[in-house]
Fold this sequence. Notes:
The chain has a single domain, classed as Four Helix Bundle (Hemerythrin (Met), subunit A), CATH 1.20.120.80. About 85% of the residues lie in helices and about 0% in strands. The protein has eight helices and no strands. The protein has helices spanning about 1-20, 20-50, 60-80, 80-85, 90-120, 130-160, 165-175, 175-205. Helix 2 packs antiparallel against helix 6. About 25% of the residues are buried.
Amino acid sequence: MAGDSKKADELSFFERLEKMHPFKMLLYLSIFGSCLIFGFLIIAFTLSTQAFDPLEDASLPIGFVVSTFIILLSSYTIGSLTKRYANDDLAGVKRSLMYTLFLGIIFFILQILGWRELQEQNIFFSGTPSQSYLYVISGAHLIHLIGGLFFILYLWIRSARSATDPVKSLLFLSNSYYSVKIKMAVVYWHFLDISWVVLFITFIFLLP
């Protein structure tokens, strides 16, 4: 009896995989690959700082600290996007996308300022391996963020254009193609949030 229940659970899992949109499957595979990359970089950075090249004179940039609060706030602004789309709230969809885009740009600027703070501490990309890892890890996340910003911008432009015409608005809110993209944007942005928090915690433990 228990075996039949287990088999049914396995079938339901594979059925969900079969019904999953190819775009969403590609997104999940990309996120998995990115997690492996970040995991490898964190391990390499940890080994470098603890065994070979401790960053004794480094301190956590204020830009990194403030940007953490900004990206957590953006997680809140985008969190309501799926619900607003499901409720046919096009104005709410536009606001969620606009706020998230705005906060994402602020995060980007703060990251650049954080790099400048590192340089003021004589920590450079061309310096020691541990110094380089600080830029590589945060830079890898920033590249992912740029991709997310372009995707959010694309959705905002589409929603803004649709809002000018009732027919376009109806098509935007009822089209399953855009529904999938909205869900993908939310998932990907939450991935950016979580990955940065993990990186930030790593920096807290490894920087004095």
